[in-house]
Amino acid sequence: MAEQSKRKGKRTVGNRLFLEEEKTNTKIMDQVKTLKDLFETFMRAKELEGLRPRTLKEHRSTFKYFLLFLEQKYPSIECAIEITTEVIRDYVYYMSKEKRLWDDHTKASRQCKTDKKGLSPFTVNIRLRTLKCLFKFLYDEGHLDHNPTVRVKLMKTEKDTIEAFSKQQILDLLRQPDQRTYAGFRDYVLMLLFLDTGIRCSEALGLTKKNFDYEQKTIKVQAGLAKNTHARILPLSKKTAKALNTLIKENGIFEDIDYIFLSNYGGKIDPSWVRSRIKTYGKQVKIDNIRVSPHTFRHTFSKFYILNGGDAFTLQRILDHATMNMVRKYVQMNGEDIKNQHHQYSPVNNLV
């Protein structure tokens, strides 16, 4: 409302009369935006925040699964404002009880003829977490007046389920690659690196010659390569450093190639291909009690690092984990490991 100025005959304007009306109109515009449009707003924001391409890809994949569910169960829903807590709970129930495995994977569905229904709690939680991230963003940014995921809890999952290789299994796996061939020697060096440093598969395959210091016997995982965008230096044993140096020399046959781990044709290797190779080596030595994968090497490194006297805080830095709780999940010991540690460190055995 206009107010009388101290200057006679002059009127000034104070607070605006239609400010609240503009805010209401903006809110209405957000409410009529489609869920797909607001998802793109979310993705642009996350890209600007510096999320890694792999994480952005995961957000798109899990959102696609949610859209497929809505098309099947709630075909009339288009706007984000229509998503309620009940819809989210229905989605969790559908994933855990009703969804047929592989039915949203076009290629796999043609090959897999299983009628098994229900995803694992671990997979359900991955998809639910990304939805929680999306709707929290939309609520915090004012696009929604409620967050439909806030009261939906994650499913309970079994803890400490990924075991490590035994000493004998490690030796058996390292004997499998035919080191008389380039591919065999490369696989041997890669497994040696996994075991020596606990490095992630994607990080190892992204290493270049400049990341390797033979004199200092270290490799550098650069921030752009690390999962958590934290650069770190990983020490190497003499054996691993020597093997890496030999592999780099043999890579000299390929011109203008900087990556350390290459295919037979000098190209960069895909992580899925490495997982397949290591799984094959596991079948050759009949390891069927635990998962044979690059990630199991990471758990194996963690376990033996602690068993051999390493401290947990240094291990946390090497593994590039933000919390000690994650380190605990990687160091999983079986009954025999615990018994051996008890015999070695029991006060009764040492003092009495």
Characterise the protein shown here.
The chain has 352 residues and is mainly alpha-helical. It is built from 16 helices and 5 strands. 54% of the residues lie in helices and 5% in strands. The chain has a 3-stranded antiparallel beta sheet, with no helix packed on it. Strands 1-2 form a two-stranded antiparallel ribbon. α8 (182-197) packs antiparallel against α10. The protein is globular, with a radius of gyration of 27 Å. Residues 160-343 form the Tyr recombinase domain. Belongs to the 'phage' integrase family.
Largest sheet properties: 3 strands, antiparallel
**Radius of gyration from CA coordinates:** 27 Å
Distance between the termini: 89 Å
CATH topology of the largest domain: hpI Integrase, Chain A
**Overall average residue pLDDT:** 83
How would the blueprint of this fold be written?
Elements: E1 2-4, E2 11-13, H1 19-32, H2 35-48, H3 53-73, H4 85-98, H5 106-111, H6 121-140, H7 167-175, H8 182-197, H9 201-205, E3 212-213, E4 218-221, E5 232-235, H10 238-250, H11 271-284, H12 294-307, H13 312-319, H14 324-330, H15 335-345, H16 347-351
Antiparallel strand pairs: 1-2, 3-4, 4-5
Helix pairs in contact: 2-3, 3-6, 8-10, 8-12
Domain Core-binding (CB): 33-139
Domain Tyr recombinase: 160-343
Keywords: DNA recombination, DNA-binding
Short description:
With 352 residues, the chain is mainly alpha-helical. The chain has helices at 19-32, 35-48, 53-73, 85-98, 106-111, 121-140, 167-175, 182-197, 201-205, 238-250, 271-284, 294-307, 312-319, 324-330, 335-345, 347-351, and strands at residues 2-4, 11-13, 212-213, 218-221, 232-235.
